[in-house]
Structures are given as C-alpha cells and as structure tokens.
Amino acid sequence: MSDVMEPMIHEDRLPGHESRLEPKPDWEPRYRGSGRLEGKVALITGADSGIGRAVAALFAREGADIAILYLCEHDDAAKTKEIVEGEGRRAITIAGDLGDKQFCERAVQQTVEQLGRLDVLVNNAGEQHYDEDLRKISEEQLKRTFQTNIFSMFFLTQAALPHLKEGAAIINCTSETTYKGSPGLLDYSSTKGAILGFTRSLAKNLIEKGIRVNGVAPGPIWTPLNPSGGQPPERIPEFGKDTPMGRPGQPNEVAPSFLFLACEDSSYMAGQVLHPDGGNTTAS
C-alpha cells in the first residue's frame, strides 16, 4: 500500500521496549484461570508489551492460544510468547505495520493457518505523540497516528470477519481522552474518539451475526507508550498521580476488562465501554 506513512519509531530516543522500562509494568494475572476462553484463539495487537502483554497473559491463563502482533520490539514479543507458552498455550509472533492493509490481511491469514481459527480480535495497538501546539503536528504525524490507531482497526476487522463465527468478540481499546480531552494529545485523542464511534457502530452492524463488539477506555497506565514520547520527560514522575486513586494503573489492572468482554460473562453487552481509569471517568 504505497500511501502508508512509515512508522514513527521511538522518535524521541526514549525506551520503547518494556525490557528497558523501569520500574517494570505489572502484567502477571492476579488469579487462577477458570477456562473461560478454553479452546479459543485470540489475535491481540500491540501484545509485545504493556496492556497487550497483560491481556495475552490473562487470555492464555483462561485457555486461549494467542497471535501476538507488534511492530518491531522483537525482544518484548519473544517474552510475551514465552509467557503464553508458560501457561500451556500456543503462541505465534507476527511483526509488521498495522497501518498497512496488506499486512493486516496477511496477519489474520497466518493466525488462522497456524492456530486453526479466530474467535477474539483485540485491537489494542496505538501510538501517541505529545504536542501542545496544534501547529507543530505535522501532516506525517497526523496521518501516521490515524493509520496506527484507527485505520488498523478497520483493516484487521475487515480481514477477520470471514473467520469470526457466532459467539466471537471484538474488543477495541480507546482511551479516557475520548471523554475528558487532552490539550497535549490532540491527534491521539481524536483517533480515540473515532474508535468509540467505530465500536458503537460496528456493534450494531454485527449484532445480528452474533458477534459482540465492545471497548475499553483505560486511564493513565504504566506502559512503554508514555515514556516513548507520549508525554514530556519532565511529566513522567507525576504520571497518573492526578487520578482520584493518586497513582497510575498497571496493565494487569486493565486486562480483566478485556477478558470480561471476550468471554460469555458479557453475553448481553454490545457497544459498551469499560473504564479502568483510577476514578477519572467522565463518560456519558
């Protein structure tokens, strides 16, 4: 796809790898599995680190095999694969640019060929770049952020639909910035608002097929996203302290929201968004 912008990889020369992040995010599931995803296959984008890794670990504990999609952090992806396999499940890693429609199509096909089916699609991957001055957001950055954060969800869902059966689930990761705004994340917040509209509309579009679509809108969660250019370096020590809980969340505090929406526990929910955000919720 010739008009795909090149990924803006670690443009701020800060750690983009969870393996280099200190302190390390908490990804480990907090409880024993109960087979809620037994025999299922989940494709999770951005599963190499952060929320995606925690979701992969929890899904695997609940019985799912996992396709780990990521951009270029091969060491992190290998660690997530090791975590999934440590839970006794199969895992494959697929590296590439989610802003490229052809890559998304290949990734879904590889998942089905190697893992046998596809039951849960988790659109989690995202990128953000901090700019308080709207005029400093370049055309390249604007296009890149939309390609990664929302175009990829269209591309992957289009590719996945022929393989999703009745009872399948799609979970899209939006953000608290959809509801409360962010003066320094103008393009990022705009994509997250688009994800909310996509989620609610897709839920109505697919409900007659028995495919449930829901979303998760995390608050400030300690992952590589913010130290990698998503926030100014001077703000990182105070990251998440302005929430009512007075701290940032951990990935394993978000993953259970994805699990609930992926399994039969949420069988009467479609077009809904859960808010693990430390009490910051301003949703309506």
List the helices and strands and how they pair.
Layout: E1 41-45, H1 50-61, E2 65-70, H2 74-86, E3 91-95, H3 101-115, E4 120-123, H4 139-160, E5 169-173, H5 177-180, H6 186-206, E6 212-216, H7 226-230, H8 251-262, E7 273-274
Parallel strand pairs: 1-2, 1-4, 2-3, 4-5, 5-6, 6-7
Helix pairs in contact: 1-2, 1-8, 3-4, 4-6
Write down the overall mean pLDDT.
Answer: 89
Largest sheet: 7 strands, parallel
Low-confidence stretches: 10-15
Domain tally: 1
* CATH superfamily annotation: NAD(P)-binding Rossmann-like Domain
Strand order of the largest sheet: 3-2-1-4-5-6-7
**H and E order:** EHEHEHEHEHHEHHE
SS summary, helix count:
8
Overall, the morphology is globular
Number of strands: 7
**Helicity range of the residues?**
25-40%
Strand content: 5-15%
State Rg. 17 Å
CATH topology: Rossmann fold
Q: Measure the end-to-end span.
A: 38 Å
Structural class: alpha/beta
CATH class: Alpha Beta
Gross CATH architecture: 3-Layer(aba) Sandwich
Question: Keywords for this structure?
Answer:
oxidoreductase; Rossmann fold; alpha/beta; SDR_fam; 284 residues; 8 helices; single chain; seven-stranded parallel β-sheet
